[in-house]
Design brief:
InterPro entries: Methyltransf_11, SAM-dependent_MTases_sf. With 239 residues, this protein is an alpha/beta fold. It has one domain: Vaccinia Virus protein VP39 (Rossmann fold). The protein is globular, with a radius of gyration of 17 Å. The mean pLDDT is 88.
Length: 239
């Protein structure tokens, strides 16, 4: 049996991929995107569930926005990084099946999930569950088949050479993800595209790539071809 997809992302070893200035930059952009999507959404988010969030990457941002946060992971081992972080005592950690979340319908105002859709065997069922337990909104990230990521299959050996421990992952056309959410009664809303340059290149080259990245962001290139995409989906109101 394969290990759960959130086991690696919740490990201390995985967190080392975000060490140093380049890692801090990547996480800062991710949090900026999260805040933009939450601020632009329904003003009703008081509770959140972060599915597969043992990595702890979203917890600080959610808590700073005053949102009471619960994290769900496949096993206790999936929270290694979260439980060693500064926010460990400020969140509830629950274990359960990622594809059969142990919560009633509409239990949380906001449901988030990052670094999971691209690695799970049944992304449609995951989306079904995220939508089921969300009262108002869902925010996910996913790599798209656009920009530099269009060559992901061909360049994966280079990515592995740079990052050493990177995993294979699935990329999506945005319409594919949006269709799955529409099927659950959630309308696609704002997207936040994170990086024009591959994340592996940021880790390899550091500051020069960050400078180019910010230039591309200012002139609008990142908003066109950036990867991965953070996107918010809102429950459609019944007429």
């Amino acid at each position: 049996m394969l290990p759960p997809p959130d086991l690696e992302t919740g490990s201390v070893q995985y967190a080392r991929r975000f060490a140093g200035p380049s890692g801090a930059y990547l996480l800062n952009i991710q949090e900026r995107g999260l805040r933009d999507l939450v601020d632009d959404g329904p003003p009703l988010h008081q509770s959140a569930l972060d599915v597969g969030g043992g990595h702890g990457q979203l917890v600080g941002g959610l808590l700073d926005m005053g949102i009471q946060t619960t994290v769900l992971g496949s096993t206790a081992d999936c929270a290694e990084q979260l439980l060693q972080g500064a926010d460990a005592g400020r969140v509830d950690y629950v274990t359960g099946d990622l594809l059969a979340l142990p919560f009633p319908d509409g239990r949380f105002d906001l449901v988030t999930s990052i670094r999971l859709l691209a690695h799970i065997d049944d992304p449609d069922r995951l989306i079904d569950e995220l939508c089921r337990v969300a009262r108002y909104s869902v925010i996910v990230d996913y790599p798209t088949l656009m920009g530099a990521n269009a060559l992901s299959a061909a360049t994966f050996p280079i990515k592995r050479l740079i990052e050493k421990d990177t995993r294979t992952y699935r990329s999506f056309w945005p319409a594919r993800i949006e269709q799955a959410f529409r099927r659950n009664g959630f309308a696609p809303r704002r997207r936040f595209k994170q990086f024009s340059a591959p994340m592996g290149l940021h880790r390899l080259a550091g500051k020069p790539v960050r400078m180019v990245e910010e230039g591309l962001r200012r002139i609008g290139v990142t908003s066109l071809i950036g990867n991965p995409v953070l996107q918010r989906f809102d429950r459609e109101r019944k007429a």
